[in-house]
């Protein structure tokens, strides 16, 4: 199962994925499915466009939360929930952002070699003491982290870069369940792979 975190207004990105690395034609002989995770937009035109898109492609999963900046974590958790409820037979899950280009068959081949039924996560990794936590509004642009988040820490915990990461699909349910007991944090890759994964 491929699940892509997308902004409701990003139809062009979704269409590009559908015509390239996420094309159903590529997976005609492979039991692979792609879904796009979005929030609920306030703009009526975007709502209508999403409805039309769903009616054509049947690949949109919409969350009951407002579509806005910093909602990627909610979308990713929605993806974990959806996979755990609808994809119990899936072997692998691949999470991507809608601005990514993924060599899906390369990833599937690598996953079949590395995985089995284990707890491995395949990703580009930011290691311990690598990614500083930005708190100074003069320097952090749109990525300022409040003092109450990761208090007393100068660096994020080890985590996977959110552009794309793969894991055994059996972990989706566990990650979702842990997320329901763990305070959310708006930087999706840090939250999912740096906060939730160590709690498994």
TrEMBL record:
One of its GO terms (molecular function) is glycosyltransferase activity. Gene3D superfamilies: 3.90.550.50. It is found in: Golgi apparatus membrane. Its EC number is 2.4.1.-. One of its GO terms (cellular component) is Golgi membrane. It is a single-pass type II membrane protein. Pfam families: Galactosyl_T (PF01762). GO terms for biological process: protein O-linked glycosylation. It is an enzyme of class 2 (transferase). Keywords: Glycosyltransferase, Golgi apparatus, Membrane, Signal-anchor, Transferase, Transmembrane, Transmembrane helix. InterPro entries: Glyco_trans_31 (IPR002659). Belongs to the glycosyltransferase 31 family. This is Hexosyltransferase. It comes from Helobdella robusta. The gene is 20196240.
């Amino acid at each position: 199962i491929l699940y892509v975190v997308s902004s409701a207004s990003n139809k062009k990105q979704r269409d590009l994925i559908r015509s390239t690395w996420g094309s159903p034609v590529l997976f005609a002989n492979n039991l692979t499915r792609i879904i796009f995770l979005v929030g609920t937009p306030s703009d009526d035109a975007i709502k209508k466009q999403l409805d039309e898109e769903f009616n054509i492609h049947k690949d949109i999963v919409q969350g009951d939360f407002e579509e806005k900046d910093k909602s990627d974590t909610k979308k990713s958790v929605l993806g974990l929930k959806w996979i755990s409820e609808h994809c119990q037979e899936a072997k692998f899950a691949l999470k991507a952002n809608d601005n990514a280009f993924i060599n899906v068959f390369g990833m599937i081949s690598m996953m079949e070699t590395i995985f089995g039924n284990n707890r491995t996560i395949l990703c580009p990794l930011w290691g311990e003491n690598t990614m500083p936590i930005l708190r100074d509004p003069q320097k952090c642009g749109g990525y300022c982290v409040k003092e109450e988040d990761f208090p007393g820490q100068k660096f994020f915990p080890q985590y996977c870069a959110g552009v794309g990461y793969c894991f055994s699909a059996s972990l989706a349910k566990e990650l979702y369940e842990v997320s329901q007991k763990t305070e959310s944090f708006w930087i999706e890759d840090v939250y999912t792979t740096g906060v939730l994964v160590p709690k498994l």
